[in-house]
């Protein structure tokens, strides 16, 4: 244990609410045993009771994601309102977004209970009708999949974090910078999740008819003019030993969901060179494609690329979907 962590642990032992929240989150995200996970949850409960907003928000995240049992959005939103009532800024922002996705800035209720009660979670979890763009491979489009305010929220969360994207081949955990992928990207670890991200993942899980645990770490991609993601496959290659091991543990990458977070750019379509087709969505629209064929085999026709913008920058939410449970 590092000295910083020891100091955090002893401060938590003395009942310091901030230290209990931070150490509780640490125990949950690092926990290798059920005991340390439970200890983490207990610390978070105590910290939330003592008025710590960060702890209450993290409990909300655990409840909404189902990380610590059944997914329970209603209880999660109660905890989020509790976090907001303690002036925890991220919770305030999220609560307004959920209560008034069309216009969160203009939403001026300040009683958090009232704001929470204005949230229609069933509506937020509902997904729009799909349109079929191609049958083999299966490519679908969902217009207005996300409200614009959710897109803006994700761009602002990703903006300070994006860095040059890397290519991973499962033998190399750090990945490599290559000319095949010149755009930037970021992903969100368990400690960095929020309810907006979990809502997006829940909606993607719903459209693919899989549990939320089939979601890999969500990514946000950023392309400046000229930057691109050259033709590639998202499926894991069952002839590569390292990828076989990955597949045995977490399952195949069944499908990919790309949500266009903005649309004020030219070019930058998602291209399928073997089909001779390219697609892009309006802001908030989702493009979803299966990486495997009807027999469950990797489908070489799914070769695809992120073309470079010729004007403006492109922001994209990219969600790879597995067939087996993924730790989130
Ligand atoms: O930017 C795009 O349109 C493609 C992104 C992509 O292929 C991916 O995230 O796997
Ligand atoms: Fe891809």
UniProtKB/TrEMBL annotation:
Highest taxon in the source lineage: Bacteria
Residue span(s) of domain Fe2OG dioxygenase: 211-323
UniProt entry keywords in alphabetical sequence: Dioxygenase, Endoplasmic reticulum, Glycoprotein, Iron, Metal-binding, Oxidoreductase, Vitamin C
SMART domains: P4Hc (SM00702)
InterPro entries in the record: Oxoglu/Fe-dep_dioxygenase_dom, P4HA-like, Pro_4_hyd_alph, Pro_4_hyd_alph_FE2OG_OXY, TPR-like_helical_dom_sf
Cofactors, names only: L-ascorbate
A molecular function GO annotation: L-ascorbic acid binding
Protein name in UniProt: Fe2OG dioxygenase domain-containing protein
Organism, as annotated: Algimonas arctica
């Amino acid at each position: 244990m590092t000295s910083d962590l020891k100091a955090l642990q002893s401060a938590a032992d003395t009942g310091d609410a901030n230290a209990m929240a931070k150490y509780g989150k640490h125990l949950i995200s690092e926990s290798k045993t059920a005991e340390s996970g439970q200890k983490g949850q207990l610390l978070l409960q105590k910290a939330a009771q003592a008025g710590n907003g960060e702890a209450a928000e993290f409990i909300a995240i655990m409840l909404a994601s189902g990380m610590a049992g059944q997914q329970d959005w209603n209880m999660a939103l109660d905890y989020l309102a509790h976090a907001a009532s303690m002036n925890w800024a991220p919770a305030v922002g999220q609560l307004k977004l959920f209560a008034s996705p069309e216009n969160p800035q203009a939403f001026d209720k300040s009683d958090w209970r009232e704001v929470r009660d204005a949230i229609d979670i069933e509506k937020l979890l509902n997904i729009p009708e799909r349109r079929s763009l191609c049958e083999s491979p299966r490519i679908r489009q969902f217009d207005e999949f996300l409200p614009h305010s959710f897109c803006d929220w994700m761009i602002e969360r990703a903006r300070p974090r994006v860095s040059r994207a890397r290519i991973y081949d499962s033998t190399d955990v750090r990945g490599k910078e290559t000319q095949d992928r010149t755009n930037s990207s970021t992903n969100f670890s368990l400690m960095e999740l929020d309810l907006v991200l979990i809502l997006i993942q829940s909606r993607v899980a719903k459209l693919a008819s899989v549990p939320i645990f089939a979601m890999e770490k969500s990514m946000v991609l950023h392309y400046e003019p000229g930057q691109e993601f050259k033709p590639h496959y998202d499926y894991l290659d069952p002839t590569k030993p390292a990828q076989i091991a990955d597949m045995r543990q977490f399952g195949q990458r069944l499908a990919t969901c790309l949500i266009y977070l903005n649309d004020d750019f030219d070019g930058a379509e998602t291209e399928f060179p073997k089909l001779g087709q390219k697609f892009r969505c309006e802001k908030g629209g989702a493009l979803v494609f299966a990486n495997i064929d009807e027999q469950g085999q990797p489908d070489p026709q799914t070769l695809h690329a992120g073309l470079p913008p010729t004007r403006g920058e492109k922001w994209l939410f990219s969600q790879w979907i597995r067939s087996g449970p993924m730790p989130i």
